[in-house]
Write a structure and sequence with these properties.
Length: 261
């Protein structure tokens, strides 16, 4: 098992990528601390882990609330004594183009994705320092690399995680804490596909993806596992894109690409 005797804290563990990662980490031997603001779903994640006789606990935690983050970090210190892995995964998007972006939505995106990762990393740092080899994983997005005109504030907030990762990797390396980032895109959610969005939006993305499909939360979880484990013991400050190759080509060209050339 790649994470035997490790303690992993996962934010946004109630569903999707967070829930898939929590289950995978537990199966790999970690004690998983699941956090979220959606308590019912978060507790269901823990229940599914425990149903396999694996170790997990749930805490309500809003990553934008410094006091709540400190309280959970304090509780972890009292119960498990250390943290080996922190996956800053919590997040959601507000669909607004630039001119329609409200100050409230802008602040909400910055607080959740950028400030949230900062607060969790800062408040869990004393416990990460107690690890023999710590790992922090920030969850950015392909929208933070290229920008998505439909989710302007989200794109900006996710984009900020990449240089933050580089700075953290530099500063925390002296504690043998590695900091890396994964940028996902085109990942299917646990909710019914197409709900709340036109199916044509998904089809257009698939048409621009060389693998010609959407990714799964489990496929992102395996990348997080790589960063969390000793397999990535000399990987620090990296940003790994998980999007089926969509951002590896010039946008708008793949659908009509002539493969005979």
């Amino acid at each position: 098992m790649l994470l035997k005797d490790k303690v992993a804290v996962i934010t946004g563990a109630a569903r999707g990528i967070g829930a898939a990662t929590a289950l995978l980490f537990a199966r790999q031997g970690a004690k998983v601390i699941c956090t979220d603001i959606h308590d019912k779903n978060g507790e269901q994640t823990v229940a599914s882990i425990r149903s396999e006789h694996l170790d997990a606990a749930y805490y309500h935690m809003d990553v934008t609330d410094s006091a709540q983050v400190q309280a959970v970090a304090r509780a972890c210190g009292e119960t498990v004594g250390k943290v080996d892995i922190l996956f800053n995964n919590a997040g959601f998007s507000v669909r607004q183009e630039f001119e329609a972006t409200t100050e409230e939505a802008w602040q909400q995106m910055m607080d959740t994705h950028l400030t949230g990762a900062f607060l969790c990393s800062r408040h869990f740092l004393p416990l990460l320092k107690k690890s023999v080899a710590g790992s922090i994983i920030n969850h950015a997005s392909v929208d933070g690399i290229l920008g998505n005109p439909y989710i302007a504030a989200y794109s900006a907030a996710k984009g900020g995680l990449i240089p933050l990762t580089h700075v953290m990797a530099h500063d925390l390396g002296k504690y043998n804490i590695r900091v890396n980032c994964l940028s996902s895109g085109g990942i299917a959610r646990t909710r019914k596909e197409g709900e709340g969005r036109p199916e044509s939006e998904y089809q257009s993305r698939i048409a621009l993806t060389p693998l010609a499909r959407r990714g799964t939360p489990e496929e992102v979880a395996y990348v997080a596992l790589f960063f969390a484990s000793d397999l990535a013991s000399f990987v620090n400050g990296a940003n790994l894109v998980v999007d089926g190759g969509r951002t590896g080509i010039t946008q708008g060209t793949y659908e009509g690409y002539d493969k005979s050339r």
